[in-house]
Amino acid sequence: QVQLVESGGGLVQAGGSLRLSCAASGSIFSIKPMAWYRQAPGKQREMVATITAGGSTNYQDSVKGRFTISRDNAKNTMYLQMNSLKPEDTAVYYCYVKIWSDYWGQGTQVTVSS
Residue 100 has what DSSP assignment? Predict the structure, then answer.
């Protein structure tokens, strides 16, 4: 059974930075692609960034050049470095991996003030 735990969210002023972490319970994490999603109030959950086991990345257009997804397979941990934050980035951020079935973390709140 896979468990994912996010951390690093908080309140930050526009233009500031945050670094989110997602820690996984098992070593199988290291061979699977993973993703960060986010969900704002009243909105559908959307993909923010993805990363393969080998480190290839893909980003939502709205965060390109500002966010960086990475992973440390030895630590079973995925990261999202968020720079130049905007109020529209405010959302609950979730980590995700599919291993036979879908696994989601519980989410961490990011709030960006104007």
Answer: S
